[in-house]
């Protein structure tokens, strides 16, 4: 196993992960420094026979990979924010609509009212799980590994030429692999939020379709006052 990064922790189950998220990915300065030294040694062996003319190109590619992890996290957070906004609107409308339907004459049988209540609870539960995963994307307290911290700059201050190149390359790759784990976590939670959001929409669509069918085949009965008024009108006519 490479010394550039720690092994991935086991990801909890689909449902358990919403209530028992992984511990934040963190490391103390001493551990970071130790891992950087090990990474630099390994990088020195790996780049021993590389042509120095390719150094600038390699460093640029490493910088692109380093910055891409930040961009991945930002994209995940933007989508999670959009999901949260949609969930809040949908759940508010769903709750209000459920209250209206529960008092409607179209659901005269207790079985239909119970089925409607259970369906709405299921939909709200699915949207709630999607919201939990979205919040994990936005509120995770992982420590991102940076290459320009005072500790890293002090370590690079006494190096020059090839030693500085090896140190910089090792720092970038070490940071990429560490930060990639954080970005992967955010992406995984966003995918799970999207899954539960999709399930919630399916249940919501099923509720709407079933209610339309019930309205078409079992129209609501008129109340007594409407029947009395209709009879008076017929008598007058």
Characterise the protein shown here.
This protein is mostly helical. The chain has helices spanning 16-19, 29-46, 55-102, 110-139, 150-157, 161-217, 224-236. α3 runs antiparallel to α4. The protein has one domain (25-236). The chain is built from 7 helices and no strands. The radius of gyration is 29 Å and the shape is rod-shaped.
N- to C-terminal distance: 93 Å
Radius of gyration: 29 Å
Q: How many distinct helices?
A: 7
The helical percent reads over 70%
Mean pLDDT: 78
Number of strands: 0
Relative strand content? under 5%
Q: Characterize the overall form.
A: rod-shaped
Summarize the model shown.
The chain is mainly alpha-helical and 237 residues long. The protein is 75% helix and 0% strand. The protein is rod-shaped.
Main traits of this protein?
single chain, mainly alpha, 75% helix
Topology (SSEs and partners):
Elements: H1 16-19, H2 29-46, H3 55-102, H4 110-139, H5 150-157, H6 161-217, H7 224-236
Helix pairs in contact: 2-6, 3-4, 3-6, 4-6
């Amino acid at each position: 196993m490479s010394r550039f990064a720690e092994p991935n922790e086991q990801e909890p189950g689909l449902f358990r992960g919403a209530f028992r998220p992984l511990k934040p990915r963190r490391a103390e300065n001493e551990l970071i420094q130790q891992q950087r030294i090990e990474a630099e040694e390994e990088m020195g062996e790996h780049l021993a026979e590389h042509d120095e003319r390719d150094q600038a190109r390699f460093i640029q590619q490493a910088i692109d990979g380093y910055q891409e992890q930040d961009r991945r996290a930002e994209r995940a957070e933007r989508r999670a924010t959009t999901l949260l906004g949609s969930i809040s609107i949908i759940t508010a409308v769903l709750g209000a609509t459920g209250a209206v339907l529960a008092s409607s004459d179209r659901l005269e049988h207790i079985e239909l009212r119970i089925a409607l209540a259970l369906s709405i609870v299921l939909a709200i539960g699915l949207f709630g799980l999607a919201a939990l995963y979205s919040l994990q994307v936005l509120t995770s307290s992982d420590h991102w590994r940076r290459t320009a911290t005072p500790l890293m700059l002090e370590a690079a201050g006494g190096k020059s030429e090839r030693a500085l190149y090896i140190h910089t390359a090792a720092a970038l790759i070490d940071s990429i692999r560490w930060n990639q784990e954080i970005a992967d976590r955010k992406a995984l939670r966003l995918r799970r939020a999207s899954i539960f959001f999709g399930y919630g929409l399916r249940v919501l669509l099923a509720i709407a379709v079933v209610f339309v069918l019930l309205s078409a085949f079992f129209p609501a009965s008129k109340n007594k006052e409407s029947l009395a008024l209709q009879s008076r009108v017929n008598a007058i006519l």
